[in-house]
């Protein structure tokens, strides 16, 4: 990737100057970004909704095959196919979700994606047959993967033009950092109760995230 960027880029290399003044300015910008985001109530709710989604996403990518083997009795190969479905379905769904977000209110589309994912996860927890479980995984993947392109566009709409890059970087740091705790949660709960109980907790997180985005969609 670095070689491709070097070959394709038409920009010149510029060596940045690093001194106390530039470091101090960077810290001041970071504090200003954090303060600006925290003072915006809508931004706080969006960030919480995205953090809950990221928590579920990281957990699903880390433990979906293990959940299918432990709770649904899937063989290793079939369980791995469920994991692959997250990305195969996502590749087809993301452009469609982005297009819908351009045509309809983005908060509504994002809320719909979360509701679909939550309903599919509930169906996955209740399903028993191979076909039913497989269908639930596909729909779960569709809802889960339809969310990011719409939600990131919604975040960009919320940020001021002059600080859009810094604000997006700050929010990604927060929701990805909180989301990275998801696999630890699943491992902890599964070790003491079961994988089904751990994924039921993820369902609660998705429902809370969906409720937040629905509320934001209704408030405009």
From TrEMBL:
Superkingdom of this protein's organism: Archaea
Entry keyword Lipid metabolism: no
GO cellular component, one term: plasma membrane
TM ranges: 45-68, 74-93, 114-147, 193-217
Chief site of localization: membrane
Keywords: Cell membrane, Membrane, Transmembrane, Transmembrane helix, Transport
Compartments it resides in: Cell membrane
Membrane topology: Multi-pass membrane protein
Listed name of the protein: MFS transporter
Organism of provenance: Halorussus caseinilyticus
């Amino acid at each position: 990737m670095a070689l491709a960027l070097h070959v394709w880029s038409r920009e010149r290399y510029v060596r940045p100057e690093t001194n106390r003044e530039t470091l101090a300015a960077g810290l001041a910008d970071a504090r200003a970004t954090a303060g600006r985001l925290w003072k915006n109530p809508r931004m706080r709710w969006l960030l919480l909704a995205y953090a809950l989604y990221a928590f579920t996403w990281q957990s699903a990518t880390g433990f979906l095959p293990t959940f299918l083997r432990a709770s649904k009795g899937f063989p290793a190969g079939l369980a791995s196919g469920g994991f692959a479905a997250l990305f195969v379905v996502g590749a087809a769904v993301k452009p469609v979700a982005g297009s819908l977000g351009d045509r309809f209110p983005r908060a509504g589309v994002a809320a719909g994606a979360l509701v679909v994912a939550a309903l599919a996860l509930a169906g996955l927890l209740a399903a028993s047959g191979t076909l039913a479980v497989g269908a639930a995984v596909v729909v779960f993947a569709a809802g889960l993967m339809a969310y990011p392109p719409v939600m990131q566009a919604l975040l960009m709409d919320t940020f001021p033009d002059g600080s859009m890059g810094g604000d997006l970087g700050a929010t990604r740091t927060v929701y990805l950092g909180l989301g990275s705790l998801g696999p630890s949660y699943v491992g902890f709960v599964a070790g003491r109760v079961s994988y089904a109980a751990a994924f039921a907790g993820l369902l609660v997180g998705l429902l809370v995230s969906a409720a937040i985005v629905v509320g934001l969609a209704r408030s405009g």
